[in-house]
Design brief:
The complex is a heterodimer. Chain A starts with a strand and ends in an 11-residue tail after the last strand. Chain A has a 4-stranded antiparallel sheet. In chain A, strands 3-4 form a two-stranded antiparallel sheet. By secondary structure, chain A is an alpha+beta fold. Chain A is built from 4 helices and 6 strands. Chain B folds into 3 domains: 7-99; 100-225, no CATH class; 324-409, Tetratricopeptide repeat domain (Serine Threonine Protein Phosphatase 5, Tetratricopeptide repeat, Alpha Horseshoe). The chains are: A alpha+beta, B mainly alpha. Chains A and B meet through helix 4 of A and helix 2, helix 7 and helix 8 of B.
């Protein structure tokens, strides 16, 4: 199964210059290689802060877009890692080794298996 | 077996040896997380080496030593950074003596009993054993339990943290503590069997490997401890196993009890099971497993559905409902009542238990209701119940069966 590990952090904490945050950032640089060596790696991207993002929607066939979102005081989504793991517990164990798990939060989400029924809400 | 190192070969070895390798690695490395990582690394090494060097004579030993040495190597590298080298050198210098077969069985028993330790919450014991001993994924366990996967994952994470924090010993309990710890172990083994018998995931209805694994664990426990319920559980599993070949047809489609070719049932397993039941009933102890085995035995002995002693089955469910009440027991009793007294009585009883609400998400409850409605000619109601069962059913063979029934009403 594939799992997306969504990494959230407070920009102020991560880029605030503390020795702990700087050490975690330094360690991040090589973390793809760790995941490749263990055979879990599928793909990974770090994201630029949301100030440089656009949010769009299409309603009645018309697209509108706004800048942002701006969430100075909230945690932001800062990176995505997709891993291959046997199950949710293995995915959680693998994600718990990520350097940013000590600074922010990592949400582990199973990637949709389209052979299974859609959720009924 | 497929060529060494192919994904199919590794998959087979993972299924047959993975859990035993893990059980031994936990003892050698002293913890679940380290052992799981080592297991992962051992199979990664196998994928690399076996295509070149061929399948080793003893894959179990090969994987244990590969997992162990890779982990110790990694610890050494990390220790060099952390400056804790001497302790780890001592650990890595333990001789890698060959492991005797009885030690492997002991490792598996240790694993069962640590996973079923009373310090863990009952739900957590089951989730942990299903994952670590039986090798189910978190997601499979979640479906077997009608529980969201993150809930199961959390139970497993917490259980492991507890084992680590309380330093629960990795050992088989002594004879005085053993009976008290058995009940949970038996429940877990039965769930493993059920998962194999009606697998919630995968292309084929039955994963014979899981059933065989549960029966193997059942025999292991019976050998270790002469206790009535352990015999009852083993008898129950053997009776299901005796009918396994007739439960699906060549296309992998479900065959109902009434349509199964009874001449193909395994008489050897049935008489072995009856021996266990007789012995347990003679000891005047009627626990839930013995009662369920006695019910299964009545089915196994009958020449046809019509010849089945449904009165006796309803009576046994009555006793079972007192010893171990649960909505599923009530549902099964209701279905048996439908055979004894006709579909009208069956439908009333099924609707009574479903009105309590806890079976809303259980596809077999809707299918049982649909069956009674179908037999009563309540076409529209039967159709609605089958549709609801279909929405909830996961297993492809079960889904095909429900679709077939839908076409008939």
């Amino acid at each position: 199964m594939r799992y997306a590990c969504l990494i959230y952090y407070h920009p102020q904490t991560l880029f605030g210059g503390s020795p702990q945050a700087n050490a975690a950032l330094a360690e991040c640089a090589g973390y793809d290689e760790v995941l490749k060596a263990s055979g879990h790696f599928v793909t990974a991207e770090a994201l630029v802060l949301p100030e440089e993002a656009m949010t769009l929607q299409v309603r009645d066939g018309k697209m509108s877009a706004v800048d942002g979102p701006f969430m100075e005081t909230k945690e932001v989504l800062g990176g995505i890692i997709v891993i291959e793991a046997r199950d949710l517990n293995e995915a959680v164990r693998v994600a718990s080794g990520h350097p940013l798990a000590t600074i922010g939060h990592i949400e582990v989400r199973p990637v949709v298996d389209f052979s299974r029924p859609r959720p009924v809400l | 077996m497929s060529a060494a190192g192919t994904p199919a070969c590794l998959e087979t070895v993972y299924r047959t040896e993975g859990r035993r390798v893990l059980a031994t690695l936990i003892r050698l490395l002293g913890g679940f997380d380290a052992a799981e990582e080592a297991l992962h690394e051992a199979f990664a090494a196998a994928a690399e080496r076996w295509p070149r060097d061929g399948l080793p004579a003893n894959p179990y030993s090969w994987l244990v030593s590969a997992g162990r040495f890779r982990t110790i190597d990694r610890w050494r590298r990390e220790a060099r950074l952390a400056g804790a080298l001497p302790e780890l050198l001592a650990l890595s210098e333990q001789t890698a003596e060959p492991i005797a077969p009885e030690d492997i069985a002991d490792d598996e028993l240790r694993l069962i009993f640590v996973c079923c330790h009373p310090a863990l919450a009952p739900d957590a014991r089951i989730a942990l054993t299903l994952r670590e001993v039986a090798g189910l994924t978190t997601e499979e366990i979640a479906r077997a339990y009608l529980t969201p996967a993150p809930t199961i994952a959390q139970r497993i994470v917490r259980a492991k943290a507890r084992i680590r924090d309380e330093a629960i010993p990795y050992e088989v309990p002594d004879r005085s503590a053993l009976p008290a710890r058995l009940e949970s172990a038996l429940q877990v083994i039965y769930l493993i069997f059920n998962e194999g018998y009606a697998a919630t995931q995968g292309p084929s209805l039955m994963r014979a490997g899981l059933c065989a694994e549960a029966i193997r664990l059942g025999r292991l426990v019976v050998d270790l401890l002469d206790q009535s319920e352990a015999h009852g559980l083993l008898a129950l599993m053997l009776l299901h196993e005796a009918r396994r070949a007739t439960r699906v047809d060549a296309n992998g489609d479900l065959v109902l009890l009434e349509d199964q070719d009874r001449s193909l049932w395994d008489g050897g397993l049935i008489s072995e099971a009856n021996g266990f039941i007789g012995r347990a009933l003679a000891s005047r102890q009627a626990g839930p497993y013995i009662l369920q085995a006695a019910i299964a035995s009545i089915h196994a002995e009958a020449a046809s559905t019509a010849d089945t002693d449904w009165s006796q089955i309803v009576a046994l469910y009555d006793v079972l409902g007192r010893v171990a009440p649960s909505p599923v027991v009530t549902l099964n009793r209701a279905a048996a009542l439908g055979m004894r007294d006709g579909p009208r009585a069956g439908l009333v009883a099924i609707e009574d238990v479903m009105a309590q609400g806890s079976l809303d998400g259980y596809h077999l409850a809707h299918a049982a209701r649909a069956d009674m409605q179908r037999r009563l000619g309540l076409t529209e109601a039967a159709r609605a119940s089958y549709l609801r069962a279909l929405e909830l059913a996961r297993q492809p063979a079960e889904r095909r069966f429900i679709i077939l029934r839908l076409g008939q009403v």
